[in-house]
Amino acid sequence: METLINEIIAQEWEMFQQVHNEGGRASCQDDHETFVIMRKSQFMIWSEEALVSYRGDLKEALLQGRNLLTEKYAYMMEHTAPEEYEKIQGALPAISPEKGELVRLLVEKEVLWRENFNQRFPAYGRLGRPLRKEDAASGDTSIETYAMGELKTYSGQTLKLLSDQYQRLENEGENPAIRIMDYTAQQYGYRDSADAQRQLEGQMHD
């Protein structure tokens, strides 16, 4: 799993380096360490089948001369820059009604998980993106918008496998957002989300 995740992240990083922004190169494109932490935190909860499928999506995109990271940020523009999105949407892969509905359901799950996480760990949660698109200030990207953009770049097979994995985790009583944020916290020197919450809350009262 570790090798598979690292292979995916390496390919994503290469694609990320080729993303062109109107205002020039973004600072996050030079922050490899944060990129790896954030991507690995997400993939840690995926099943091996979903990871293998997504690796296939990346390879297929390369063969077609497509950049899934460029497409991800372009899809996000539907909410972050609607006028510009109108001009480019015709160049993006069309989303079928079936795929669009699966994306919508998965985004809804991810937002609800994170909402629950933020309620349990508010100080730690505030370090992340705003939750919903209506919460985002101009220039910000919400968790909802980011998830929507990313999920639209996955193949139907990857989305189905990811949906199955999410259902398994929920059936086990898991909140996947907590597992993702636990791993992220550990990379920054905390034991888990609860430890990050305690320390961050303490700093607020100092």
How would you describe the overall organization of this protein?
- There is one protein chain.
- This protein has 206 residues and is mainly alpha-helical.
- The chain contains eleven helices and no strands.
- Helix 10 crosses helix 11 (193-205).
- The longest helix is centred in the middle third of the chain and has 24 residues, at 97-120.
- The termini are far apart.
Catalogue the unreliable spans: none
Beta strands, count: 0
Termini distance? Answer: 41 Å
Overall structural class, as computed from helix and strand content, comes to: mainly alpha
Give the topology string: H per helix, E per strand: HHHHHHHHHHH
What would you call the shape?
A: globular
Radius of gyration: 17 Å
Mean of all residue-level pLDDT scores? 93
Major beta-sheet overview: none
How large is the share of residues in beta strands?
A: under 5%
Total DSSP helices: 11
Helix content estimate: 55-70%
Features:
globular; 206 residues; 0% strand; single chain; mainly alpha
State the gist of this model.
The protein has 11 helices and no strands. It has helices spanning 2-17, 32-43, 48-63, 68-80, 82-88, 97-120, 122-125, 143-151, 156-171, 176-187, 193-205.
What topology emerges from the helices and strands here?
Elements: H1 2-17, H2 32-43, H3 48-63, H4 68-80, H5 82-88, H6 97-120, H7 122-125, H8 143-151, H9 156-171, H10 176-187, H11 193-205
Helix pairs in contact: 1-2, 1-3, 2-10, 3-9, 4-5, 4-8, 6-8, 6-9, 10-11
